[in-house]
């Protein structure tokens, strides 16, 4: 059974006189433990698709199952609990709370869930050890680097050990060194913790860390590539596919030189 099962999903925004079809009948499956990228031109429907899989947005029609559970039409209250317990999220702009320390930001999901201090402390230690954040726990977000900010956001996303981690342009605000670091940590999370990762990106270097990439165009799946050889070879495949798909690829983006 796939961990994520998307069946003929459509998403239409707007009202009768101005309808926008963001997703036009996508079906896909993501297996447990996969590291999947979603790419495609600007406006292709990537974020809409990710948000529907992440239960942040609802399909207009179609069905989405996560671990066999149909999440398509669950109530908002049930979905909020499901997200808190089963899913992790990383966004381009980190979404850290400026008034909280790094430590408080990372443990926030567990504090909100009302877990006991020793349980929180144990989870915190594991997370900060994995992400190399031990030395900066007492600092505030405006006292750390951009790359550290995204690692803190990553820590907050995985502290509840979600089976699924969704990331929307996680390297979009990072320089190439910080991006590389984050991508190595995401690889570790995928390989060591077995966390399934689904990531949206415009960037070929970022995508080259995935094991499989779905290319979306005009709200539909255009093609798919699977990494078989080296990451460098996969990077070239991504660039080639971006050239084929056209419109909005980032083949000359800031990270292409670091390959
Ligand atoms: N809330 C909304 N209301 C109306 N239209 C929307 C909304 N969200 C997205 N759209 C439209 O749906 C289409 C797909 O948007 P989406 O953000 O999913 O694309 P994307 O591939 O993630 O684009 P980008 O790479 O530029 O972020 C676009 O035409 C967009 O303008």
TrEMBL record:
<dbReference type="Pfam" id="PF00005">
    <property type="entry name" value="ABC_tran"/>
</dbReference>
<dbReference type="GO" id="GO:0005524">
    <property type="term" value="F:ATP binding"/>
</dbReference>
<dbReference type="InterPro" id="IPR003593">
    <property type="entry name" value="AAA+_ATPase"/>
</dbReference>
<dbReference type="InterPro" id="IPR003439">
    <property type="entry name" value="ABC_transporter-like_ATP-bd"/>
</dbReference>
<feature type="domain" description="ABC transporter">
    <location>
        <begin position="4"/>
        <end position="243"/>
    </location>
</feature>
<protein>
    <submittedName>
        <fullName>ABC transporter ATP-binding protein</fullName>
    </submittedName>
</protein>
<dbReference type="InterPro" id="IPR027417">
    <property type="entry name" value="P-loop_NTPase"/>
</dbReference>
<comment type="similarity">
    <text>Belongs to the ABC transporter superfamily.</text>
</comment>
<dbReference type="InterPro" id="IPR017911">
    <property type="entry name" value="MacB-like_ATP-bd"/>
</dbReference>
<keyword id="KW-0547">Nucleotide-binding</keyword>
<keyword id="KW-0067">ATP-binding</keyword>
<keyword id="KW-0813">Transport</keyword>
């Amino acid at each position: 059974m796939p961990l994520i099962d998307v069946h003929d999903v459509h998403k239409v925004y707007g009202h009768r006189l101005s309808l926008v079809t963001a997703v036009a009948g996508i079906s896909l499956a993501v297996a447990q433990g996969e590291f999947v990228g979603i790419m495609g031109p600007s406006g292709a429907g990537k974020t809409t698709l990710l948000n529907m899989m992440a239960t942040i947005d609802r399909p207009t029609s179609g069905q989405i199952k996560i671990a066999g559970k149909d999440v398509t039409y669950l109530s908002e209250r049930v979905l909020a609990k499901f997200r808190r317990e089963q899913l992790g999220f990383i966004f381009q702009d980190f979404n850290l709370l400026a008034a909280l320390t790094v430590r408080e930001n990372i443990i926030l999901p567990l504090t909100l869930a009302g877990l006991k201090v020793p349980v929180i402390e144990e989870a915190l230690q594991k997370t900060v050890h994995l992400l190399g954040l031990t030395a900066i726990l007492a600092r505030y977000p405006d006292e750390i680097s951009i790359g550290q900010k995204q690692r803190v956001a990553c820590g907050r996303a995985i502290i509840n050990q979600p089976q699924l981690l969704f990331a929307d342009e996680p390297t979009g605000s990072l320089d190439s060194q910080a991006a590389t670091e984050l991508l190595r940590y995401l690889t570790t999370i995928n390989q060591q913790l077995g966390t399934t990762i689904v990531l949206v990106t415009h960037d070929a270097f970022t995508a080259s860390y995935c094991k499989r990439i779905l290319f979306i165009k005009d709200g539909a799946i255009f093609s798919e590539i699977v990494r078989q050889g080296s990451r460098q070879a996969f990077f070239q495949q991504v660039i080639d596919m971006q050239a084929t798909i056209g419109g909005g690829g980032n083949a000359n983006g800031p990270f292409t030189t670091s390959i």
